[in-house]
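ARCHIVE CARD
Drawer: 12
Card no.: 0347
Subject: one protein chain, sequence and derived structure
Cross-reference: see card 0346
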Amino acid sequence: QVQLVESGGGLVQAGASLRLSCAASGRSFSSYAMGWFRQRPGKEREFVAAITWSGGNTYYADSVKGRFTIFRDKSKNTVYLQMNSLKPEDTAVYYCAADLSVRLWMLRSPNEYDYWGQGTQVTVSS
């Protein structure tokens, strides 16, 4: 069973930075993809970024491209989301997720992912 534990959320002012972490355990991740999603109040869960575990290929939503960076530390089985130049509209609960199938054309869909963390709140004040 895969377990994902997020950390690093908090309350910051617009323009600040935060780094979210997602520690994964339970099995080998050599063939996984990992994603970050967020859910704003009253909205559906939306794709933020994804990375393939083996090759480190990255994918971003247009709304965060150039501000957010996803990367992984294989030795720690941890995926990170570095968030810079935060905006109030980035306020959301952020979730990490693991994809066993790694269908690259589906990485932006939450339905592609098999395991989810509990989420961490990010609040950006104006």
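Annotation on reverse: The chain has a mean pLDDT of 94. The two ends are 40 Å apart (CA to CA).
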